[in-house]
Please model this.
Amino acid sequence: MYQVVELYGDCEPWWFTDDWQDDTVQVETFETYTQALVFFQDRCKQYEQNYPEIRYEGETMAAFWKEGEERWCEECGDYIQQYHSLAVVQDGQIFGNLSTLNLEEFLPQKAHCQFDQGFRRA
Model:
């Protein structure tokens, strides 16, 4: 089974911090990858209409945001950007091979507390 997971939080979907599933706001389940991908693409089009900042990673992950959509982080004493994200997963697990992804490209100039806690590659 394949799922399209919608997330809202301070990490884009490709970070997959240990608690990434805590940011889940909705999950849609599909029998086939093609069905999941079509739904993912449709949802991306909807987000594109409302969020000027967009980043895709492959064909199965996307993040959408507006500058200034932030929350206060007690741990780091700063405001951190919030992201609306979509990811295709298989049986609730990270889908695809992200081993070639250069995560350093995604580091914000001022990393927030989630990064201090560590991240793992998919």
In short: The chain has one domain: 2-113. The two ends are 19 Å apart (CA to CA). The beta strands are 2-9, 24-30, 53-57, 61-65, 70-73, 78-81, 83-90, 93-94. Confidence is low (pLDDT under 50) at residues 97-112, 114-122.
